[in-house]
Amino acid sequence: MKCVPVSVLLAFGANLPSAAGGPATTIAMALERIKGEKSVCLTAVSPAYATPAWPPSEQPDFVNLVAQVETVLPPEALLTVLHGTEAAFGRVRDVRWAARSLDIDILSYGDAVLPDPVIWKVAADDAPGALPRAPLVLPHPALHKRDFVLRPLCDIAADWCHPVLRLTAAQMLNRVDHSGNNRYEKVVLPAL
């Protein structure tokens, strides 16, 4: 039996330097590392943006972008690969929403809704900070609320349709509250 690749959307963010360099360099090198994965094919990368930290804090600005990949890995195995990439660039998971050298989130995995639509709805409706760390929730339960993810997502997949909300990325961006994050500056990733 031949495995059929699944289209996956990933969000990258960083606001601390890693051993590789500043956030833009770290993200560029993380993308290169993912390109080297046998089971993952990088198909699109949005422009990178510098945006204020979220939730609002005194942290340094983040560099954010969205990438599209194709993979035959199941979601949990892909998450393991992404966590390995984060760790390779010094990511430490101790305090939620702390400044970090690299953060890679799976935004969507094909049309998968995990663990199921009822739990997805509960996770998506919870207040910030109330989301459980445990099982993988897909699509990302806060995707539709975060302009710093939706803006770069629209650069590469404005017509992508959320499998639960039935809204495109462009429609979600038009509906999101932009008041907390109205500053976007394009960042050029270094050529490697």
TrEMBL record:
Its EC number is 2.7.6.3. One of its GO terms (biological process) is folic acid biosynthetic process. One of its GO terms (molecular function) is ATP binding. Residues 1-19 form the signal peptide. Residues 96-107 form the 7,8-dihydro-6-hydroxymethylpterin-pyrophosphokinase domain. The keyword Cell membrane does not apply. It is an enzyme of class 2 (transferase). Pathway: Cofactor biosynthesis; tetrahydrofolate biosynthesis; 2-amino-4-hydroxy-6-hydroxymethyl-7,8-dihydropteridine diphosphate from 7,8-dihydroneopterin triphosphate: step 4/4. Keywords: ATP-binding, Folate biosynthesis, Kinase, Nucleotide-binding, Signal, Transferase. InterPro entries: Hppk (IPR000550), Hppk_sf (IPR035907). The keyword Kinase applies. NCBIfam families: folK. Belongs to the HPPK family. Catalyzes the transfer of pyrophosphate from adenosine triphosphate (ATP) to 6-hydroxymethyl-7,8-dihydropterin, an enzymatic step in folate biosynthesis pathway. This is 2-amino-4-hydroxy-6-hydroxymethyldihydropteridine pyrophosphokinase. It comes from Eilatimonas milleporae. The lineage of its organism: Bacteria, Pseudomonadati, Pseudomonadota, Alphaproteobacteria, Kordiimonadales.
